[in-house]
Amino acid sequence: MKYGPDHGLDDIQIEQRNQLIDDIQTGLRNFNETYALELPLGQFEGPLEPGLPSNLVIVGTQPVYDEAWVYKTRDFIRNNLIDYLSKQILRRVSTLDRHDYCLRGSAYAIALKLCTTHPLKYRTGFADERSDFRLDCDTGQLALTFSDIVDRVSEGYEHDHMRYRLWSEKTLELLAQFLFSGEWDSTVFEGGALWEELNSEGEPVSLESFIESVDQTIFDLPMEQLTEASFPDYSGVIFTEYVPAQNMSPAQKEQLYRRYVNLLAT
């Protein structure tokens, strides 16, 4: 039995709060049933019961359990739910061979593949594989999206599993080709991915700005089968698997930057 769930509220505020709680609970149950997740619903719904345990002694101002409290509690539940799901999904990593295609590409691409081979998906199109998935159920006021789950799985993979490759002379040369000239017979990399943007500046940008642009360009690589495209072709290099440009050695940064400056001067 909870104490003081309706303290400070009129009948309309109580009704609105209770309706919001019902909507969130419905969203949780729809989500659980749609994907047969067998979630511990009591764990997630429990915090939505307004009021304090009757055995607690109130010191100071008594809390008000209004709609603002529900939204704050909803955010707490949503965060815990995403954590719970991401841990469940990431368990699969230990069952995969390290050369499995699912583990190719960036942490985001890997998370996207892990999530789309889990029940939590519904595809809505093919134009942009970074954003064409959604949850196939009404989560109501739960405010949960497929992207929320992918992002948390990506963070978890990055923290616990990601092992970046180190740049070699060969891969650094391929990166320079990708950035400044592209591959003449490719329909994906027909021109330098970064050259037009940097060439339009007239004068060289700073080393810091250049490296930031390199990282952004790699992040924006087109995706093929939920993995960043390899350069110059399917048997080539996936740049997102390598140490970000920001974390290259000073000599590697300078080498890439000098290539850019020299090309701009010609």
Would you give an account of this structure?
The chain is mainly alpha-helical and 266 residues long. The chain is 47% helix and 3% strand. The protein has helices spanning 11-34, 41-45, 67-90, 107-116, 146-160, 169-180, 195-199, 207-219, 250-265, and strands at residues 2-3, 52-53, 223-224, 227-228. The strands form two sheets. The protein has a two-stranded antiparallel sheet with strand order 1-2. It has a two-stranded antiparallel ribbon with strand order 3-4. A hairpin with a 2-residue loop joins strand 3 (223-224) and strand 4. Helix 3 (67-90) crosses helix 5 (146-160) and helix 4 (107-116) crosses helix 5. It is elongated. The protein starts with a strand and ends with a helix.
The ordered string of helix (H) and strand (E) elements is: EHHEHHHHHHEEH
Query: β content, as a range?
Result: under 5%
Strand order of the largest sheet: 1-2
Rg from C-alpha positions?
25 Å
Individual helix count? 9
- Fraction of residues in helices? 40-55%
pLDDT averaged residue by residue: 89
Flag low-confidence runs: 124-128
Number of strands: 4
Largest sheet: 2 strands, antiparallel
Q: From the helix content, strand content and strand pairing, which structural class follows?
A: mainly alpha
The global form is: elongated
Q: How far do the termini sit from each other?
A: 79 Å
